Amino acid sequence: MTVTHRTRLPALAATAAAAVLWATAGPAAPPAAAHPFGPPSTATISADGPTVSIAWRAAEDDWVALGQALGALEDPATGNVSTTLTGEQKLQGSQDVRAYLLDQIYITQDGSRCEGELASMENLLAEGARLTYRCPRDVRKVDVTVGALSDLNEAYRTMLTAETPADPSSTLLTATDTTRRMNFSWYAGVLATPGLAVAAGTAAAIMAGAVAWVLIGRRRAGRARS
Known about the structure:
Protein name: PE-PGRS family protein
Transmembrane segments: 186-216
Shape: elongated
Distance between the termini: 78 Å
Keywords: Membrane, Signal, Transmembrane, Transmembrane helix
Helix content: 25-40%
Largest sheet: 6 strands, mixed
Signal peptide: 1-25
Organism: Streptomyces xiamenensis
Oligomer: single chain
Order of helices and strands: HEEHHHEEEHEEEEEHH
Number of helices: 7
Number of strands: 10
Structural class: alpha+beta
């Protein structure tokens, strides 16, 4: 599901509107930084056997922009805002929001999407939307796509960080580059750490040199006996 780009309110008005919408029927939340030109949204990822877990976090005003684009939240500039539920509750109850997140955030293994579900949207600002994916086989190399918000504005970015050993351990995703191949193999943590990778390469070179020296010594000894 892709949302149609909508012109956003000026920064101060957008922040104020976000606080009002989010806190409807509840205490006011602190103002969020201006987006999409502020800090990127974040996503943390972990792999365990065939299961991949992602937690995607966005700023308050970005959740509001997404909710309005999907029709889950009202726009105070064009109409009344219901005070029955908080903005977070409205987002949690929206099937369109859930479908959008699963459509924009997904895992591909060997060219096929892994089965995904939106596990939780509780405590949305602090913990984000938590998604779980079940792949056909244990996760080694998979393609990770996080395109949420970038269809609203191409300036949106997402910093993807692995919580289990992976190569790369972190990467920045953009509107023109929403997918990254990640390696969760047992040696991925070494590959993702430059110092360890160099040390491992040096150790391998030393070992290879030692083996070669032993073989040369044996050949010389054999020639001497003959």
